[in-house]
Amino acid sequence: MNHELLTDMYEFSMANGYYLTLSHDKQARFDVFYRKAPDDGSFVISAGLKQVVDEVKNWHFSPDDIAYLKSLKHFSDDFLFYLTEAHNRCSIEALPEGTPVFPQEPFLSITGPLMDVQLLETLILNIINHQSLIATKAWQITSAADNRPVMEFGARRAQGPDAAIYGARAAIIGGCGSTSNVLAAKLFNVPAVGTMAHAWIESFPDELTAFRAWAKIYPDNAALLVDTYDVLQSGVPNAIKVFKELRAAGHEPVGIRIDSGDIAQLAKQARKMMDDAGFPDAKITASNALDAHIIKSLLNQGAPLDNFGIGERLITSSSSPVLSGVYKMAALENKGKWEPKIKISNSREKVTLPGHKQVYRLYDKHDPQHAVADVIALADEQIGSKITAISADVHVTRNKVILTDFIAKPLLQQVLTPDKTATCEANPFVIQRFAKKNLAQLPAATQRLLNPDHFPVYLTKRLVDLQQKLIDEATNM
Prior knowledge:
single chain; 477 residues; alpha/beta; nicotinate phosphoribosyltransferase; TIM Barrel; 2 domains; 20 strands; globular; phosphoprotein
């Protein structure tokens, strides 16, 4: 599907106005960032960059798009002609997918003709906000699972096909190991998993017959759903009967899945029953509207669970369903020179950071695998061995620090120019490993699911001074 019209009407209205009033090649720079992490967390796992780059690289309007815009009788003919010749004239700097990103830090910065970057706003935010939200939720869930495999099961509850497909990819980036979504599995080369639903059992005269039929067809994939009628009175006993028959025929069973009831207590009793029957290696999978907090509670109760299938609360991030990433102008070209731009608010935390910026992750000089802080700087600043920095958190009381004994690593990388595209990693498992490596470098306290510590993010004095200068100029107009 062509996504060029996947934008808000006001983007086209502004672009048409820019065309009629400003130089057509006037350049602008916009940043994508967020102010508050979902679920009261401390960070977000960046995701969606590959799709953003692909969309921007191939940006164009079809004749049908132009005909529709013309039918609205809202745009000038000259502007519509401009759109017929649209192609990528933009450059993007971005954090690699899988990077833990903190409030105020740009996920990406896009530079190009003002009309073009304005028209790309909604599409870019749609992709980055959704996929980063789901990747972050998947990280929370897989962290709670404590290295137990988590399968993404959410396609039927996702808000549409695209959310199901790209949500599955984001879930892999966040830590899941497989998906039930066959199309996503095909597109992103990830394992497709799934066995039976309750309808399978209900389609046979009785549960045991249904289990035997499944085992006959899939003798090496006998994961049996045991809660259709009664987990302990029929489901597990019938599963054990079939497991014995499979073993006698030279096959080992996979295990059982419990999809309802008091999963902690049912799993404990089912585990004992299968162990006593000689199947200590048969796995127990739990599903049914699970999330990070439920999983943590189940494990804290001693539930002997081996795997989790997570659906709606992952694919919709139901406990915190929106990542409110924003797209704000940071600089505008005027007569060949870049002018920093700022958005001012009565709320200090909503005042934007002007200019062309770089984000640095600082590592302990004596322990280079230990990240200690992030610094947002102007892109042309030289980061030396000592930085006078101001906290990006407007709520702290002691906001000025001197940073020393660090190794600074720039995070924003050039991924797209009008003439060249850098290779963005496509394999979600490679991105997952990158995310895990970066998360391991952060303080453990920042990764708590409840009341996490806030990782320090600072601004350089030059950036703060520029911001204040623009505030003073705007308020004295």
